[in-house]
């Protein structure tokens, strides 16, 4: 089993965004069956069968917002008297979920709809409550989805205003008229994901001239969209560059993209009452607008995600007194 050292120093923003930090060394792990306990939106903390006595290691995926969320989780846990460290930028869901299952990390910020589709690519739920209930069944028995946050960040498919005007694009359904003529850009995982090329083909009947493997709402895909190297880009709805550049988010009339509220996924062995209460308090305070502001502080104003998270937790009364 690969060991992730929870005592490693917290890296600077440049180090965080520089690579996968050896994520390729994390072995894949088959999902085990089972049903977890879920409390819906309750913030009563739950009784919990686990113990946080040894502390928790929070892992994150390889994009800015998820790193911010990881540091928010850690700060909120510390505020509740739970030891916590962060292992940021580990890679895509295909890497971090196995790391969570095998115990290299204990806690992960996730997104409801895409997480469900990772375990069940036939899932049809789109509403937040239905998704949370479905996660109860879909998650491996060792994992639990805690109550989801008010904040939501959805995948979106965006084009420049020039492209939208040239081809009359306002909806994902419009792409079918240009089948096989446009270039799509996004993270490598989009080739096999339902909220990606698979779903665009199956739900909207759309294929593309070319797929360019870039990053997840990061500088590569956004730079390619600006330059015209890609026509359609997979971005995140809280990305401040969408509004700043006047990009057009294509509507999703057939609801390919499910609700994506932020949801903590934790190993049940660590989920005691203190952990549950701390993350429920955080989730109740974190709105979509607040999350977008935090993204801007890191992506635009170039602040370190750990410092941004620590300041937000303190300002919102969640830090240790």
Explain what you see.
The protein has two domains: 13-22 and 37-152 and 259-315, Periplasmic binding protein-like II (D-Maltodextrin-Binding Protein, domain 2, 3-Layer(aba) Sandwich), CATH 3.40.190.10; 155-249, D-Maltodextrin-Binding Protein, domain 2 (3-Layer(aba) Sandwich), CATH 3.40.190.120. A five-stranded mixed beta sheet has the order 7-6-8-5-9. The chain is an alpha/beta fold and 321 residues long. Helix 4 (112-119) packs parallel to helix 5 (128-138). Helix content is 36%, strand content 13%.
By helix and strand content, what is the structural category? alpha/beta
Query: Architecture of the largest domain in CATH?
Result: 3-Layer(aba) Sandwich
Mean pLDDT: 87
Assess the beta-strand content as a share of residues.
5-15%
Question: Low-confidence stretches at least 5 residues in length (pLDDT < 50)?
Answer: 1-47
Helix proportion range: 25-40%
Task: Write down the domain tally.
Answer: 2
Q: What is the CATH class of the largest domain?
A: Alpha Beta
Largest sheet: 5 strands, mixed
| Cα radius of gyration in angstroms | 19 Å
* Annotated CATH homologous superfamily of the largest domain: Periplasmic binding protein-like II
Count of runs of 4 or more consecutive helical residues:
12
Count of beta strands: 10
Gross geometry: globular
The strand line-up of the biggest sheet is 7-6-8-5-9
Reading the helices and strands in chain order gives HEHEHEHHEEHEHEHEHEEHHH
CATH topology of the largest domain: D-Maltodextrin-Binding Protein, domain 2
**End-to-end span in angstroms?**
37 Å
Keywords: Signal
Protein name: ABC transporter substrate-binding protein
Signal peptide: 1-30
Domain ABC-type glycine betaine transport system substrate-binding: 56-314
């Amino acid at each position: 089993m690969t060991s992730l050292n929870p005592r490693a120093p917290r890296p600077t923003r440049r180090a965080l965004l520089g690579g996968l930090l050896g994520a390729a060394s994390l072995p894949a792990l088959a999902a085990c069956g089972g049903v977890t306990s879920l409390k819906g939106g309750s913030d009563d903390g739950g009784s919990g069968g686990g113990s946080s006595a040894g502390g928790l290691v929070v892992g994150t995926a390889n994009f800015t917002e998820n790193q911010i969320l990881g540091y928010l989780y850690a700060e909120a846990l510390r505020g509740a008297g739970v030891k916590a460290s962060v292992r940021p930028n580990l890679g895509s869901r295909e890497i971090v979920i196995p790391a969570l299952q095998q115990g290299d990390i204990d806690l992960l910020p996730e997104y409801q709809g895409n997480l469900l589709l990772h375990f069940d690519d036939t899932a049809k739920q789109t509403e937040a409550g239905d998704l949370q209930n479905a996660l109860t069944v879909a998650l491996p028995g060792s994992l639990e989805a805690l109550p989801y946050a008010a904040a939501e960040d959805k995948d979106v498919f965006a084009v420049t205003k020039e492209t939208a005007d040239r081809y009359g694009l306002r909806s994902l359904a419009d792409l079918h008229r240009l089948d096989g003529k446009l270039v799509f850009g996004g993270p490598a995982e989009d080739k096999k994901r339902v909220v990606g090329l698979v779903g665009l083909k199956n739900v909207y009947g759309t294929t593309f001239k070319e797929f360019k493997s870039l990053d997840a709402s990061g500088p590569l895909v956004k730079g390619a969209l600006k330059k015209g190297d890609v026509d359609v880009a997979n971005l995140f709805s809280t990305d401040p560059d969408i509004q700043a550049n006047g990009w057009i988010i294509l509507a999703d009339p057939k609801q390919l993209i499910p609700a994506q509220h932020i949801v903590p996924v934790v190993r049940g062995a660590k989920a005691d009452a203190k952990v549950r209460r701390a993350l429920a308090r955080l989730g109740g305070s974190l709105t979509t607008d607040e999350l977008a502001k935090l993204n801007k502080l890191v992506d635009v104003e170039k602040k370190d995600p750990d410092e941004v998270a620590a300041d937000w937790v303190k300002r919102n009364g969640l830090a240790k007194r």
